[in-house]
Amino acid sequence: MDELLIVTTGGTIDKVYFDDKSDYQVGEPQIGRILQELGVAFRFTVIPILRKDSLHVTAEDRELMRATIAAQPTRHVLVTHGTDTMVETAKVLATIPDKTIVLTGALNPARFRGSDAEFNIGTAVGAVQSQPGGVWIAMNGRVWDPARVRKNVAANRFEALG
Questions:
Q1: pTM above 0.90, yes or no
Q2: Which of 28, 29, 84, 120 sits 20 to 30 Å CA-CA off 36?
Q3: Per-residue pLDDT reduced to its tens digit, 66-98
Q4: SS3 track for 126-159
Q5: 9 is annotated as contributing to ligand binding
Q6: Where are the domains of the chain?
């Protein structure tokens, strides 16, 4: 992998807690900071597209993601995304040929101690380098085919369909 394109769309991974509002809001993308702190041995470019909870991602937003990724020459793409609608977005991105695209996110904000964000990002970086072309989801220490996975909201994890 010569270079990694990272597209950020928001989601829990980038959420920030505001005490005065007693609410979470999507903040600045965290992945660039995380990769720099880890001292990764590859070049990467971060393109922030959205700052949304994935429950608010629209068909137009998914088309913007698809068009943005398709227009870039980079073959390896990592997308940070909210977990609730990650599978739906993966299906739209599957229409992009000749790229390996991995979606990841977090069940707890990256800024929180004990967040799964760094682990999921590491899994996604490994997956984008080792998986064949197509679209994949990296969550909970596994790499999933989007057609064969779902988020189990009650258990707060991804699991195989069926």
A1: yes
A2: 84
A3: 999 999 999 999 999 999 999 999 999 999 999
A4: HHHHHCCCEEEEEECCEEECHHHEEEECCCCEEE
A5: no
A6: 3-160
